[in-house]
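Shape matters. Shown next:

___
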Amino acid sequence: MGIVAIFSYGINMSTNNIIILLSMFSITLLAIYLYLKYLILDLVDEVWEEGDEFVVKNNSLEDRIPLYDVSYVSYTMTLGKYFPQRITLHLINQCIFGKEITFTPVENWLPIIANSELDNLTYRVEKSKTSRLKNKLKNLRKS
């Protein structure tokens, strides 16, 4: 829109008005870029649990992440229609997608159910890390 306005009214506009119009257009583009970068472009396509690991799929790449390799799970509540819910898995070891895996959960119209599912996920991650540490301690005591 701003480009059309510059070309159609550019002859009659002063230099100050053109600078203001260009700066508003630039700020709008920057806001769109930041929105896409921080809320949409960092999301992976699919994440699901398969036994004691997460299967993460993005484009044609797929990786399996054991539950004990998740340091912690963070959750961002929805902020209306344009800011989706996000779950981030913060990993201990980097995988092919990086140290953080971010995805949007399946929408639930009851936030209580979504919170209980997140609590269950966090519990399973902690339980997996604890059982792995117990197994390591057992193996150390045997040797």
Observations:
- The chain has two domains: 2-39, 46-142.
- The chain has three helices and six strands.
- The beta strands are 46-50, 53-58, 61-66, 70-76, 86-95, 98-103.
- Residues 46-142 form a domain with the PH-domain like fold (CATH 2.30.29).
